């Protein structure tokens, strides 16, 4: 049960992702962020991911063995967060800050028994509170929990889940998610710098749609945050002195923000509806989007996920697709806007299309995407919608 924030205790949860911790230099920079929060009088709980691409290396080791053992795989995969946890604690001690490292099983964070994709059942924060009262910074290994004495992991992006679960259980004043960019942008600034517009605020539903494509924040973390974290911020660990950030808010109706994501190297699978859904359930792979029309269904996967499966007879595969996702607040209920967007696609070979109240998902062959990308961006800019952040984006020539 969440603790009361009455009295002197001001708890702040700060989560640092893999790109923020990719070297000792990066770790020390993150430590300076924690140091500032401590100097401002906050009790800080740090959640860390594995350093850089460390988890990817561990996955490669696991895949070298021709055996399916998610229990043992979790023991391997959780090692990255354990290394980060220890190094971060040492770095805090180096500058004179008392700190203690804790693994998920030491708290404990109790999960169900689904190894590699476990879900949190309960979080015990008594040890954290004991150390906070002794003026320690508590550094927690993200991504991991425990089930019947066995270590479990929460799935890719699980450190986000750990951070929001702790923030909720501690009734934290804020949960700060540090990445390598200054908050959330209308599209990925690392890949589309000219088109990317910073969003100072974004609604939970909108961010959820964008996170499914750009991995901004884990969807399960968003679900936890919406139910019990009062103040969640996405910030940059690379520019810690800047005030640029994105605040996640609940009232999306007033924001009317557009977001645009491009997800390349996607594969579409088509089959009879029940056959496809049963196959996906049994395969335990991650699916980005599913469309059901009558008795048929289509699913969009990353290439890396597609490589994990053997496609049954009768299933159709369409490779080399780019998935375009446009996110807004209710703008698709206005047919004028929808017609403008779809008009851009008339000459494109659209393979996949879904529309909802707040998003449109379009699957195109890679070669078609190259030709329509600029037109889509410019069309969204020209849509007359009051107070829309996306209208600040310049025409792409």
UniProtKB/TrEMBL annotation:
From the record, give the transmembrane residue ranges.
none
Report if keyword Transferase is assigned: yes
Q: What is this protein called?
A: aspartate kinase
Gene Ontology process terms (BP): homoserine biosynthetic process; lysine biosynthetic process via diaminopimelate
Q: What is its EC number?
A: 2.7.2.4
Q: Name one GO cellular component term.
A: cytosol
User: Which key words are in the record?
Assistant: ATP-binding, Kinase, Nucleotide-binding, Transferase
Report the domain of life of the source organism. Bacteria
Reaction equations catalysed: L-aspartate + ATP = 4-phospho-L-aspartate + ADP
Report the residue ranges that make up the Aspartate/glutamate/uridylate kinase domain in this protein. 10-235
PROSITE patterns the record matches: ASPARTOKINASE
Q: Which family does it belong to?
A: Belongs to the aspartokinase family.
Q: Which residues form a coiled coil?
A: none
Entry GO MF terms: aspartate kinase activity; ATP binding
């Amino acid at each position: 049960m969440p603790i009361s924030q009455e009295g002197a205790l001001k708890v702040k949860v700060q989560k640092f992702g893999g790109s923020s911790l990719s070297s000792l230099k990066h770790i020390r920079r993150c430590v300076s962020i924690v140091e500032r929060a401590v100097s401002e009088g906050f009790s800080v709980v740090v959640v860390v991911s594995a350093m850089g691409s460390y988890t990817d290396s561990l996955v490669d080791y696991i895949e070298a063995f021709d055996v399916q053992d998610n229990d043992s795989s979790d023991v391997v995969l959780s090692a990255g967060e354990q290394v980060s946890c220890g190094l971060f604690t040492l770095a805090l001690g180096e500058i004179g800050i008392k700190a203690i490292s804790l693994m998920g099983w030491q708290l404990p964070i109790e999960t169900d028994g689904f190894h590699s994709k476990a879900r949190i059942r309960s979080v015990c924060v008594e040890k954290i509170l004991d150390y906070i009262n002794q003026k320690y910074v508590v550094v927690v290994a993200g991504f991991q929990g425990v089930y019947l004495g066995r270590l479990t992991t929460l799935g890719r992006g699980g450190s986000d889940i750990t951070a929001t679960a702790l923030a909720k259980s501690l009734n934290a004043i804020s949960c700060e998610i540090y990445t390598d960019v200054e908050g959330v942008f209308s599209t990925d600034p690392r890949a589309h710098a000219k088109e990317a517009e910073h969003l100072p605020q974004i609604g939970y539903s909108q961010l959820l749609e964008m996170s499914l494509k750009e991995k901004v924040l884990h969807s399960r973390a968003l679900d936890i945050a919406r139910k019990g974290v009062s103040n969640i911020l996405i910030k940059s660990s690379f520019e810690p002195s800047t005030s640029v950030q994105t605040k996640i808010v609940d009232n999306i109706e007033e924001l009317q923000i557009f977001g645009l994501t491009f997800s390349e190297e996607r594969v579409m699978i088509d089959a009879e509806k029940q056959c496809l859904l049963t196959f996906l359930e049994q395969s335990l792979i991650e699916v980005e989007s599913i469309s059901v029309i009558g008795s048929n269904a289509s699913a969009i996967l990353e290439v890396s996920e597609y490589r994990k499966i053997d496609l049954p007879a009768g299933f159709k595969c369409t490779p080399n697709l780019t998935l375009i996702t446009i996110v807004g607040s209710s703008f698709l209920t206005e047919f004028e806007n929808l017609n403008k967007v779809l008009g851009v696609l008339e000459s494109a070979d659209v393979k996949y299309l879904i529309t909802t109240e707040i998003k449109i998902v379009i699957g195109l062959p890679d070669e078609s995407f190259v030709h329509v990308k600029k037109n889509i961006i410019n069309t969204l800019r020209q849509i007359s919608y009051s107070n829309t952040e996306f209208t600040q984006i310049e025409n792409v020539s």
